[in-house]
Amino acid sequence: MTQYTADLALFIDGVWRSAEGRDEAPVVNPATAQGLAGLPLASAADIDEALSAAERGFALWRATGVDARAAVLHKVADLLRERCDAIAMLLTMEQGKPLAEAKGEVAGAAQLFDWYAEEAKRHYGRVLVRPSGQRSLVLKQPVGPVATFTPWNFPIYLMAKKVAAALATGCSVIAKPAEETPGCTTALMRCIADAGVPAGVAQLIFGVPDMVSRTLIASPVIRKISFTGSTAVGKHLMRLCADSVTASTMELGGHAPVLIFDDCDLEKTLDMVVPQKFRNAGQVCVSPTRFFVHASIHDAFVTGFAARTAKVQVGNGMDAATQMGPLANARRPDAIAALVDDALAKGATLSTGGSRDNAPGNFFRPTLLSAVPDHADIMSVEPFGPVAVTRAFETFDEAIALANSTPFGLAAFAFTENGRRANLLGDALEAGMVGINGFGVSGADTPFGGVKQSGYGSEGGTEGLDSYCVTKAVHMV
Which end of the chain is more exposed for a tag (fewer CB within 10 A), N or C? Predict the structure, then answer.
């Protein structure tokens, strides 16, 4: 059996701090429900020291040349690739996703550090046209010390997306990842430290989430926060930011619609959508969930989707045959079961799955609900799990209305071979990201963010650098 080898600790002002005298939280393997280790939690004094260190670190790091910063970020990427297998095993043991997916996540994190290392060199301001002898400059400068809050579903990639961009611009960082997945994020911070980031520039803390967020956001040291998580928690953090006028980027919940038109290649489409739906057990903020299918192909779509879903291999992510692992925490199977039961009670048809697995751990069978009525809770509540729902539509306008009917607008997808329709879909769908005939909406060079209650601001791409900068105009006459 693979051993859990994480060395869990806080990282403050260049020093690793273990559990001595600190409260601890259990870390649990979601595939076995067995405890893995105790995680040290930051005290109020720890957080105060992290803030002081970040303030000093910012003064040092912002004055460091961009080439020197880039060299450090490239080294982080190299270390992530060198340590990929070990980090991926920690990720799978803590979060549950198949090992192949975990390795892909580590590789994606390395790509982020490499991309931002180079893009920081091209993050220009501009010179405005003025009469001879006058100059007006627009400068992009690092906003200051930032706090990042990241979830457990993609713990390494999402932490890297925030931290890499912040460090590239010259900001210092206090990173607060999820307590459910501390080993893999600690390993990421060890790569950052071993790459030569100066003391105080990057801190890692775990703790009681509400206490940590209130303390960091209330501090005058923190100039900006970036949060990825639920809409409910995001709204709470926005209220805290209002009191201190702290800038924020919010990547919140989604409930991605997928429009399936009658001119698509149905078999090819099904081969794409089913693996995507059950990737990471559906615990993906852009996971395709609400499938709106043209009435003429709805039944064939359901039959093909159900047949493929029934073949998905569920098990421990450390098993090479596993295609879908467990849900990350013990609360989720019951929450998903409640949504499924509600839909069935309101007239939906269970095409496959629909219940917990009998194995130990947080398993829920891959599930397809068809002909789901609009008033079922799952049509407006993000399941964040391995459940897909379908509903038929007749016209383009009806499909757009259904897709845009929730308060969320993170990602939306559509499958059609009609070029004119594809062009209209890109405009009409209310989402920060739209995928036409594919699901590739997240990359190092692409902005990632939502509209409506899915949040505001973007990470990734040049927009990810902008989000950690302030714009300053300098006029000389």
Answer: N
